[in-house]
UniProtKB/TrEMBL annotation:
Residues 14-390 form the Acyltransferase domain. Keywords: Acyltransferase, Membrane, Transferase, Transmembrane, Transmembrane helix. The chain crosses the membrane at residues 20-36, 48-72, 102-123, 155-173, 185-202, 214-236, 257-274, 289-306, 327-347, 367-391. This is Acyltransferase family protein. One of its GO terms (molecular function) is acyltransferase activity. Its EC number is 2.3.-.-. It comes from the Bacteria. It is an enzyme of class 2 (transferase).
Length: 425
């Protein structure tokens, strides 16, 4: 995902660093869950630390907010300016190139090293390769791949984004006022937000009997993309029209207050006063819906001040702009992809250890937190670094060079001379 600054091609160190924080936060949450530190259904965790670690569920949705923000923004700006948006084919190819090769590498390693005993047909390989394993989950071996539900979620958003931009253009219609067109670019985001909240409610109804995979379909977190799209539309409006939304002005004046608000939301989200999410009860449904909304609020409060150019915060610069976190941010996608396989390697789960792989829940509490987090973090960083510099970046750069040559070639093609009309005709 691009870190381009609003209104320029400059990279924002804070937005590189925030990805590093989010990736490590997700890793720590999963390690804490696997080691038995967090609370899980009727299993109590490790006291206050269990609750604090359980609260790290807030770390994943901001990734989707960032995707919605940076990917929808050029489309929204084109609508506001009344211009043609990015080329759809090139957009989709670049996004696929950015996430699929690294994902395919992980799928290959995990299927061969962990799930080989569970593969009964070519279809068991084709489904994860095509990112269909959560859409068609029956008998699919997904040990150490369960977290990759985010890949089809991202891919679905990429495919839907040109359609959403087309809808925004249709809603904008023939309005000549840029501010009015900007307001209408918010409509697709509002539609997605409603769809997301409705899906969360539906899949947590006490009468719901569908497969658990429906909790990991794109609809479940489409509301986070919607929040990012809303920020994108407001940002494009501010740049094109000069009309800065009040929430942007507030973030510019008091960025640290937004982070303080995000911390408060994180703490409020930790207790589960209404019931256990996913328990199939009215209380569980209520708690899941409230928790989902709190996570969206956390994501917006956490991300928004990092995207407002006027926001100046020494705290954010020091926390997120340092070299180690910026590096982790650059390889954050690989850290996310590799951390669950490394957890399984540590607990020796899979055919590479002469065992048939079992679900992670069956091995919960079988490893200490500090040993597991150290092994998982080091292994994931090494694997992600190799993937980034040997696979992901070379492919992206090769495509960038090819695209540049095509543009240069197109620019040097001489225009056809106009036919001269003879005088006197």
């Amino acid at each position: 995902m691009s870190d381009a600054e609003i209104g320029s091609n400059k990279r924002i160190p804070k937005l590189e660093g925030v990805r590093g924080v989010l990736a490590v936060g997700v890793l720590v949450f999963h390690v804490a869950w696997q080691s038995g530190v967090t609370n899980f259904m009727d299993q109590p965790g490790n006291g206050i630390w269990g609750y604090l670690a359980d609260g790290l569920t807030v770390m994943l949705p901001p990734f989707f907010v960032l995707s919605g923000l940076f990917l929808y923004r050029p489309f929204a700006r084109a609508v506001i300016e009344g211009k043609r948006g990015p080329a759809v084919g090139e957009f989709l190819f670049r996004r696929g190139l950015r996430i699929l090769p690294a994902y395919w590498l992980v799928v290959g390693v995990v299927l061969l090293g962990i799930n080989l005993d569970g593969i009964n047909s070519a279809w068991d390989v084709i489904r994860p390769v095509l990112a269909l394993h959560f859409f068609i989950p029956a008998d699919q071996p997904v040990i150490a791949l369960a977290h990759t539900w985010t890949v089809p979620t991202e891919l679905t958003f990429y495919l839907a984004l040109p359609l959403l931009a087309w809808l925004a253009a249709k809603f904008a219609g023939t309005a000549v006022d840029a501010a009015r067109r900007a307001g209408r670019t918010m409509i697709p985001a509002a539609i997605l937000l409603v769809i997301g909240l409705a899906w969360v409610t539906y899949t947590n109804l006490p009468t719901f009997t569908g497969p658990y995979e429906l909790w990991f379909w794109p609809f479940y977190y489409v509301s986070a993309f919607a929040c990012g799209m809303g920020i994108a539309a407001l940002s494009a409006k501010a740049e094109v029209t000069g009309i800065v939304p009040g929430i942007f002005r507030a973030a510019g004046r008091h960025p640290n207050l937004f982070w303080l608000g995000a911390l408060a939301v994180y703490l409020v989200n930790i207790p589960k006063p209404f019931g256990v999410p996913g328990s199939g009860t009215v209380g569980g449904m209520t708690q899941e819906l409230i928790g989902h909304c709190l996570i969206l609020v956390f994501s917006v409060l956490f991300i928004l001040p990092l995207t407002v150019p006027e926001a100046r915060s020494r705290l954010m610069d020091v926390t997120l702009g340092n070299a180690p976190l910026r590096f982790l941010g650059r390889i954050s996608y690989g850290i996310y992809l590799w951390h669950i396989p490394f957890q399984n390697y540590f607990v020796q789960n899979g055919n590479m250890f002469g065992k048939t792989a079992v679900p992670d829940a069956m091995l919960r509490g079988s490893a200490g937190f500090w040993e597991l987090v150290t092994f998982t973090l080091i292994g994931s960083v090494v694997a992600a670094t190799l993937s980034y510099y040997l696979l992901e970046q070379p492919l992206v750069r090769a495509y960038g060079r090819r695209a540049k040559r095509r543009r240069e070639a197109a620019a040097t093609v001489p225009a056809e001379p106009q036919q001269q009309v003879p005088a006197g005709t």
